[in-house]
Amino acid sequence: MSATAKQGLGRIGGLLKGRSARDVPQEAVIPEFRAQALLLFQDFEKSGIGWFWSTDGEGRLNYVSDCVAERHGRPREELIGQPFHKLFILERDEDDRIERTLPLILSARKTFSSLPVRGLTDDREVWWAISGRPQYDGAGNFTGYYGNGADVTDSRRSQRDASRMAMYDSLTGLSNRHRMDKRLTATLTAYKAAKRSCALLMVDLDRFKQVNDTLGHPAGDELLKQVAQRLQRIVPEGGEIGRLGGDEFQAILPDIDDRGRLGDIAKRVIEIVSQPYQIDGSRCVIGASVGIAIAPYDGADAEELVRSADLALYAAKGGGRGQFRFYSKDLHNEAERRRQIEEDLRDALAKRQLYLAYQPIVDVATNKVVCVEAVMRWLHPELGNVSPGVFIPIAEESNQIIAMGDWALKTACDAAMQLPGNVRMAVNVSPKQFANLGFPAVVAQALANSGLAPDRLELEVTESIFIADDDITDQTFKSLKILGVRLALDDFGTGYSALGYLKKADFNKIKIDQGFIRGVTEEGSRNIAIIKSIVSLAEGLNMTTTAEGIEAHDELETMQKLGVKQIQGFIYARPVVIEEVLEAMTSGEWVIEPNGPSKYRADRMTTFRKVGLIHEDHRYEGTMRNLSRTGCLIEGLLDVPLGVKFVIDLGEGQLAVAKVMRSADSMMGLEFEMPMVDDGAGGLCTRHRVSPYILAAAGMPATAQPMPNLAQQITLPRFASASDRAKPAR
Ligand code: C2E
Ligand code: MG
Ligand code: MG
After folding, report:
1. Ligand 1 atom 22: the closest Cα is on which residue?
2. Which of 170, 218, 376, 467 has the fewest Cβ atoms surrounding its Cβ within 10 A?
């Protein structure tokens, strides 16, 4: 036995001896019982069930069982003399913060029992439950601690596994709804006091259900895992991502209220989720929609913020998928409108509210119309014209698209028979129609009923028909080829374009999406090189190319230079009713001279929006006529001198400082001090908003409700600065 051990055992003797007569059994003080007790004690130590420790008055170890030294991988002598708490890791632990309190307890000389602490061991993780009692000498002076410990690693581990299971999603390993709720509530409560902001992103996968249905649930699970991995990579430091269930994910992003930055994060989420996946040797593609709400602007507590983010997500999905939306109070009306649309769409076809419009597709070398694309229109009795971008996704969700698509196909084939002999008719086909086994028969029927030659019909499909390498898809392609109709790959360049698709199916045409064309004339655009390679690949495979959405001459010239064969865009014509097409073609052909702006101006949008104009202590009303990232045109105030700075109140806490650069009559052009950012809905918004905390400080309620006007409303037709107003009236 080592000298230390002897010394320690001596102390144990002392331990027993030092107790009061009430504490210690009589037999313990009898020498032979003491020896027996010592043996039992040693045996107990050896068994590893528990261990003992004691310290001096300074808190330094003067005894500790050998097994503790073993666990530390150090000789016991090295531990003796060390402060007791140095045996443990006292940093904050993810699940348990209790060990932080140990030094406090020791310095306060308190008794403690079964305190869980993590051992500072070399390799494996060890947890102990330790107990200790302060000791005093006869004069009442503190002499140190006596105590014991027990290994609780196993029970702690199983406890932690159980709590992990309660906090984490077992499929993806991400936080589950419970943990996300807890974290959000805790963050928002703390942030309320600190007046900090926190963004909440709701992410929902588009077309996940289709993958699940076609490839099976195990494939769906695998897909969710891969999505989780991708999302984890892009959550900024300090943020947390969780899976709420199904295909719904959520991210908490503390201290971000910059809508420019949040928009970028949302775009990145959509982009990364939309990249193709490899699952069990199959390739599949999905998309994502994102809703964003920011505390305290859109909700001060967790429940309110989640509701706002959910509503924003609902709007993003309704806006045609693959989009993000910020919460705004207008979304309540939009949600109501969408519900109405969903309901009314059910009998739109029966009530003959649908019709087709036709947009010319022009041969760029001759300006001759070689094809028209039939696009569906819905004239709603109350809402007027509803955009296909809104109603087509709803129709797809409810499977109504199949009946609507069949109708479009039949109607377009009939219309095509009225066109001059060589002009083709293009019809959009939804992936839902395409996945239907009976689809080739529907096409054959439409051709037979109308008498249209098959090669005058061009079916436009998008890449999403390749969502699963499905036998039905292959079979449908074959049947359509046998029928002799032409096939066009529509919207090429959106998200996940894979040139491999082009070889898979025998397409006659690639339509380059307008999203890909936008910005092509900007300096340093990468799209030029990509379009060039699409064009040469298409030529190699004997396909023709159409560029969609050409509006300006600079875009048209670029497409010509790149060798694109056909153009579809407002520069030639918008979609028009069949009567107009027929009238233009009475001579047997339709030649259109391109007509549009010389340059595409991406971000200037016409608006008709009431705004507040705050100058010094006055608030005026104006109408915003157009808005770009850098400036706007506002009507409604006479004689404003150049250089005047206004604070423009765009509503909902959006204030922008702008300087008057041009002014004529009641119209003025202003330049923003800080550029606007994308609002996800094709519009623009301010990067930051006035915090409701500031409004609250000014005596206004800090809620997510509509922001009250900041200044008293005084409508003045003529601009006057404070100094002007101070002058006596002449
Ligand atoms: P798409 O098939 O890519 O059709 C082209 C869209 O681009 C049309 O929008 C057209 O109006 C628009 N466009 C053409 N040139 C320009 C331009 O220069 N500038 C701009 N800004 N836009 C231009 P539309 O009619 O709103 O249709 C949107 C989408 O709805 C279509 O995109 C198509 O995917 C879908 N869709 C329309 N009709 C049908 C249909 O009958 N069946 C199915 N399944 N989908 C349809
Ligand atoms: Mg199309
Ligand atoms: Mg398209």
Report:
1. 549
2. 170
- Atom 41 of ligand 1 has which residue's CA nearest to it? 376
Cα 273 to averaged position of ligand 2 atoms, centre (Å) = 24
Task: Work out whether strand 112-119 and strand 88-89 pair parallel, antiparallel, or are unpaired.
Answer: antiparallel
User: Domains in the chain and their CATH numbers?
Assistant: 3-159 (3.30.450.20), 168-328 (3.30.70.270), 351-511+568-584 (3.20.20.450), 605-724 (2.40.10)
Q: Which residue has the least CA distance to atom 3 on ligand 1?
A: 491
Is pLDDT at 523 greater than 90 in this prediction?
no
Amino acid at 571: I
Strand partners, 429: none
Take atom 16 of ligand 1 and give the residue whose Cα is closest.
549
Single out the residue of 264, 315, 324, 261 nearest to residue 289, CA to CA.
324
**Which long-range contacts (C-beta less than 8 Å, at least 24 apart) are formed by 498-507?**
498/276, 498/463, 499/534, 499/537, 501/463, 501/466, 502/537, 502/538, 502/541, 502/543, 503/541, 504/466, 505/477, 506/477, 506/481, 507/541, 507/543
Task: Quote the pLDDT of residue 91.
Answer: 59
Return the residue whose CA atom lies nearest to atom 30 of ligand 1: 388
Q: How far is the CA of 279 from the centre of ligand 2 (A)?
A: 29
Residue 35, number of CB atoms within 10 A of its CB:
11
Cα of 375 vs centre of ligand 1, distance in Å, is 6
Beta bridge partners of 677: 685
Answer whether 459's CB lies under 8 Å from 427's CB.
yes
Q: Residues enclosing ligand 1, CB less than 6 A?
A: 359, 375-376, 387-389, 392, 401, 405, 408, 428, 430, 460, 490-491, 514, 548-551, 568-570, 575
For the ranges 322-326, 463-467, 584-588, the lowest mean pLDDT is seen at 463-467
Distance 201 CA to ligand 3 centre (A): 29
116-154 as b/e: b if 16+ CB within 10 A: bbbbebeeeebbbbbbbebbeeeeeeeebbbbbbebbee
Per residue in 637-663, pLDDT tens?
888 999 999 999 998 889 999 999 999
123-138 per-position pLDDT tens digit: 777 888 999 999 999 9
Per-residue pLDDT of 183-207, as tens digits, reads: 999 999 999 888 899 999 999 998 8
Which sign, positive or negative, has the C-alpha torsion 526, 529, 532, 538? Answer: negative
* Residue for token pair 């003080």: 29
Transcribe 244-305 into DSSP letters. EETTEEEEEEET---HHHHHHHHHHHHHHHTS-EEETTEEE--EEEEEEEEETTS-SSHHHH
Q: To test ligand 1's pocket by mutation, which of 548, 553, 555, 566 has the most ligand atoms within 8 angstroms of CB?
A: 548
Tell me the pTM. 0.66
Best CA proximity match to 713, nearest among 640, 643, 638, 614: 614
CA distance 264 to 269: 9
